[in-house]
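Problem 12. The chain below contains 314 residues. Write out its predicted structure in token notation.
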Amino acid sequence: MAVLGWLTPRRRSATARSVLAGEAAAEAARKSSQELAELAEAEAEAGSPSEPEFPVVGDSLAAAFFDLDNTVMQGAAIFHFGRGLYKRKFFQRRDLARFAWQQAWFRLAGVEDPEHMQDARESALSIVKGHRVSELMTIGEEIYDEYMADRIWPGTRALAQAHLDAGQKVWLVTAAPVETATIIARRLGLTGALGTVAESVDGVYTGRLVGEPLHGPAKAEAVRALAAAEDLDLTRCAAYSDSHNDIPMLSLVGHPYAINPDAKLRKHARAREWRLRDYRTGRKAAKVGIPAAAGVGALAGGTAAAVALHRRRR
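Solution.
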């Protein structure tokens, strides 16, 4: 029995040792954690340098150029504008189906179809012919609140804000009417907008364009001209777009970004190691969701759903 008592520590002695062991373990853990943190910091400093911060704060020779449709805003601004004009009885129901189909196609395909875009522009010009510019600007403010404000991509908006916070100018560059683009730019707190210019005489639209739509190579020319006027260094500038049609504009700058890119732009961007950002919830536009609002939105949604169903059946 005495032997067993010698082999078995008394409870009080064991408790004291447990406390000592616990305190020692805690102290060791604290020291090891601190040592690991210091080691990780040293390794980070000794390793390869990280990617330079971008945009560069205070770089007055840099600016950012953002495409609008499906880059900053989901869908096409001109179609949303058309919805607002229809609501205000600027055109008849027979024109509604065309606008709805064009918007449904844009949402499903996620690309700019030249024929659809041209048709939309011609329709818009015929609709606004004879109306005062000031009238359409006032209506455009209302339409932004009704149909556009909720369709701004938060991710792209954050990219634009990063440039603004760095003290750089940020411009929209779009084929949409310059009046619409200017409203959107102002609402987002951007510097301004480059857009398609519709001819007006004495403040009244004539139904014709000044030159051609600001699309494809025309965007690149506009950016180049603005950069010259603003004394910008394009190699230090950034450009953002979703469409392969804007490759000329993206190729002008030192920091091109493919945002929600179509297939052709995605392939081009990967081949040239451009940065990519995709803020869509799915790869197909149909997975993003089809608008179910009343009027043209409902018709667009129904048309798109029918097209999607037809594709699935095939």
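Discussion. The CA atoms of residues 111 and 262 lie 6 Å apart. Students who got a different answer should revisit the alignment rule from Section 12.3.
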